[in-house]
Amino acid sequence: MMKEPLISVIVPVYKVENYLEVCLRSITNQTYENIEIILVDDGSPDRCPQICDSWKKRDNRIKVIHQNNSGGGQARNRALDIARGEFIAFVDSDDYIASTMFEFLYNQFKEDIDIVECGYCITENDDALFDDKNITYECKVFNTEEAMRENIRDRIFRQLIWNKMYRKNIIGNIRFPIGSKIDDEFWTYQVLGNARRLVYTSKVLYAYRQQENSVMHLLSPERRLQSIEAKIQRHNYIIKYMPNLEAESLSNLWYTCIYQGQLAMRRMNEKEYQHILKRLKQIMQLYPIKGDLSKIPGKSKLWLKLASISFYWTCKSRNILKIGL
């Protein structure tokens, strides 16, 4: 009987001592057993290094890397560099997964399928309800351009890296940026672009633990500008490789600028806001909206036109109307 291919599971670890045991238990209890689990302790100041080493002694599929605090991107990169699996999966160390997740995702792979994505739930505890065998779920195949359109629309195939399984060969030398708080947004679109076909299934198999002190909660409006820089890189990628999506990508970039302008207006003092406003205006000048806007819905088109006339009053009006926040 042919042995199932190896799946490398990458888990960056930092300041999650209250959740790490649940996470690791959910991974080691997978019904798909041929996995290697790469734990990267990112210089965590709590008990996480000891917990990682303890689990390594309990399960010979676990490898542990200890490094000075360098961020999640560098942690994932180090794991990718040593991963031996034919397939790659990521799990955040404060989250946990259904026992059948890897078996189910692997079974969706056919010869030309390179990425499989599942549904996820948001939880604050350890008893999230996953979909069982009797639950009806959607399962659909996408080509590369269709998947990128969904990524732009932020519906499925989003920048999230942890509710997917990837063939390792489509990742290649693509690595996460070092020092960025939102490194996944710089990485995911590139990997999606390398895939031949992708599968989306709505079956909920991943539990995302919502914490008040999570990275996304801690981001200031200024640091959230990193997400715009990621959108710029994605937009340039789309111009080069998927020009059919250029108009929709540009619209999304502008709406991201508007949203960040709204946040800055609400949360920053005048000096900080003016600094952010200057950068947002620079981006919109570098990437002007021009030509046919007929593919953009009516209300969306209106806000884009207003933003091209007065970015300040567009953000102000949307805040007053409580739109987009």
Biggest sheet, open or closed, and with what strands and sense? 9 strands, mixed
Rounded to an integer in angstroms, the radius of gyration calculated over CA atoms is 21 Å
What's the total number of strands? 9
pLDDT under 50 segments (min length 5)?
A: none
Look at the helices and sheets and give the structural class: alpha/beta
Shape: globular
Strand content: 15-25%
Helix content: 40-55%
Mean of residue pLDDT values: 91
Order of helices and strands: EHEHEHEEHEEHEHHEHHHHHH
Helical region count? Answer: 13
Question: Gap between N and C termini, in Å?
Answer: 55 Å
Quick structural summary:
With 325 residues, the chain is of the alpha/beta class.
Please provide a written account of the structure.
By secondary structure, this protein is of the alpha/beta class. 45% of the residues lie in helices and 18% in strands. It is built from 13 helices and nine strands. It has helices at residues 20-28, 48-58, 72-82, 101-107, 144-153, 168-171, 183-194, 215-218, 225-241, 246-267, 270-286, 298-309, 311-321, and strands spanning 7-13, 35-42, 62-67, 87-90, 96-97, 113-123, 139-143, 164-167, 197-209. Strand 1 (7-13), helix 1 and strand 2 (35-42) form a beta-alpha-beta unit. Helix 5 (144-153) runs antiparallel to helix 7 (183-194), helix 10 packs antiparallel against helix 11 (270-286) and helix 10 (246-267) crosses helix 13. The protein is globular, with a radius of gyration of 21 Å. 38% of the residues are buried.
